[in-house]
Amino acid sequence: MSVTADPLRVWLIEDQAAFRRTVARALSSSPALECTAHFDRCETALGEVGRMRPSEHPQVIVLDIGLPGMSGIEGIKAFKQCLPAVQILLFTVFEDEDRVLQAICAGASGYLLKSSPLREIIAAVQEVASGGASIHSHIARRVLDLLARLGQPTATPQYGLTETERDILKHLTNGSSKKEIASARDTSFHTVSTHIRNIYEKLHVHTVSGAVSKTLRERLL
Amino acid sequence: MSVTADPLRVWLIEDQAAFRRTVARALSSSPALECTAHFDRCETALGEVGRMRPSEHPQVIVLDIGLPGMSGIEGIKAFKQCLPAVQILLFTVFEDEDRVLQAICAGASGYLLKSSPLREIIAAVQEVASGGASIHSHIARRVLDLLARLGQPTATPQYGLTETERDILKHLTNGSSKKEIASARDTSFHTVSTHIRNIYEKLHVHTVSGAVSKTLRERLL
DNA sequence: CATCGTCTCGCATGATTGTGCGATACCGCG
DNA sequence: CGCGGTATCGCACAATCATGCGAGACGATG
After folding, report:
1. What is the DSSP string of B23-51?
2. Mapping DSSP to helix (H, G, I), strand (E, B) and coil, where does residue B134 land?
3. B159-176, pLDDT tens digit by residue?
4. What is the distance between the alpha carbons of residues A143 and A133, in angstroms, rounded to a whole number?
5. B191 CA, D10 C1': separation in Å?
6. Which residue has the higher pLDDT, B97 or A128?
């Protein structure tokens, strides 16, 4: 690879101004990269895309997943639409696995911890630009598990859900209320309530909609 | 984490005898690992599983993907069946992406190049045992792309849903409450309530779970 | 037999929903 | 200029839900 190649054009979208400037400077400090613009929200960046020549379009976008206004997930889809060749790197804090998974399904090519050392961030941008992916190993694992489940419809018990819990979950995904479930299973309302409570804990959600959503998205039943 | 914890029991399955012994020795050289057995083919290893106490079962299997007899892919399925908790690391040469993808769909948790330094192999085993995954970035990228393709559905039936309604539905499928949606959209709680009410009518449901379920099942978004 | 996980049931309270019944305002269209 | 569709906002009340706390019964497992 030539050392005189044009540097990669990178955009950074991150709402915390101080942090954004730090990272932008770090990116540009690498001779192989140039942070040609940075924004505090997707909307601004998307508006800018239309105003510039294609030769100025970014090749990589580093995108905070937790932005005000348009979410990172929607942002990915929007960018992918107007810049089909762009590579998108997520920028996020730890413990946000579900959103990261959704983002990956939306087309992100990598995942970066905000707490990463700057040199790792630079390395990740280059990795992604060269056709690789940059993912934290625990996220990678969840991606693999998800894929394994999609690849093999074989019902694998997930999240340690009990038979009873799965049955109740099934009712929930049909839109039933606790009361209806109790009568369908011929048990007490309180019992159903307890089971749902345990389901919430195992699935890390705290609403019916969250449980239903996770169940259907991850093919838990 | 204790330094006196029992070492991880690792099996190695690889048909090239010299290389197998080298790697086995390297694995056991780490105090955290112990290569308790190594085989030249899956069949032998599978037979051994039945003959031993569960406490001697391996926690991680490092498996060559290109084996004589039973293929690595079949091997993964067989091991996963008789040792549900086992973690499987693929061991392979470069340029074998398609088979690696198949293997991942079969349940492998990681991927290792035979040309990797021994210290990386040890690290990968530990990574996988602790719930992570170990994947080369180019494989990771193909996995991500595959997932993105699966995640992107097709043209869909609508129910005459408005743009606003679809947006609110999206929030609902993320498990958000009305209050959260209102603040995310920067509007009144009552407005959100009204929209949801209209969504219910259009989708013929009367609970959040019903709406979420219908949305995800029929790929409404 | 002691412990653990599961299923069962209960109560109480505050938060959230579902729904009926309004109202104002903007916009496109005939 | 009316009219329909959409988006906005409001109130009120019953139903439902989320969650903390507690507890008895049963089977499996060590």
Report:
1. HHHHHHHSTTEEEEEEESSHHHHHHHHHH
2. strand
3. 888 889 999 999 999 999
4. 13
5. 10
6. A128
Q: Supply B65's token pair.
A: 């993907």
Residue B87's closest chain A neighbor by CA?
A141
* Cβ(A142)–Cβ(A101) below 8 Å: yes
pLDDT tens figures, B116-151: 888 888 888 888 888 778 887 777 777 777 776 665
| Confidence bin at A98 (pLDDT 50/70/90) | confident
Residue B177 to chain A, least CA–CA distance (Å):
8
Say which residues have a Cβ less than 8 Å from residue B198's Cβ, sequence separation at least 6: B162, B165
Chain A contact for B137, CB < 8 A? yes
CA B147 to chain centre: 11
Give the mutation candidate from A86, A144, A218, A220 for the B interface (greatest B CB count, under 10 A).
A144
Which pLDDT does position B196 carry in this prediction? 93
Instruction: List chain D nucleotides near protein: any atom < 7 Å from a Cβ.
Output: 6-12, 16-23
Query: SS3 of A110, please?
Result: strand
Contact in structure between A66 and A41 (CB atoms under 8 Å): no
Residue of B nearest to A150 (CA): B105
The pTM (predicted TM-score) of the whole model is 0.66
* Backbone dihedral angles phi then psi of residue B103, each to the nearest 5 degrees: -65, -40
Is the pLDDT at A155 greater than 50? The verdict is no
Is there a contact between A177 and B207 if contact means CB atoms under 8 Å apart?
A: yes
Residue from B82, B102, B77 nearest B92 by CA:
B102
Express the helix, strand and coil content of chain A in percent, nearest 5 each: 55, 15, 35
Q: End-to-end CA distance of chain B, in Å?
A: 45
For residues B75 and B27, is the Cβ–Cβ distance under 8 A? no
Task: Answer for the pair B96, B90: CB distance below 8 angstroms, yes or no.
Answer: no
Please determine, for residue B153, whether its predicted confidence score (pLDDT) is greater than 50: no
